[in-house]
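re: ur question from yesterday

yeah so i grabbed the chain u mentioned. its 75 aa long if i counted rite. heres the sequnce exactly as i have it in my notes:
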Amino acid sequence: MIKQQLEELFNGMPNIVQEKLKPVMENLLERAADLDAAGMEDPDYEDELESITKEVNKVKYLNDQWQIMNAKKNN
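ran it thru and got these structure tokens back, copy pasting raw so excuse formatting
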């Protein structure tokens, strides 16, 4: 479930962001798949989910910054 949500988020980002952050995104998707497989009964579930969320927020921030820079170039 988490992996699917991340895939949708990452696929919605521009290609240049996907290319530049591909290793990070792949790592996050792998961690999300492991977390999905372990399920909520895993004692480390909440900690890992929080860690993944922090990293995803960094990716989203970089995407936002790229879009701002690109918008300035086009104006």
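noticed a couple things. Helices lie at 2-11, 15-20, 22-38, 45-74. also The chain has one domain: 2-74.
anyway ttyl
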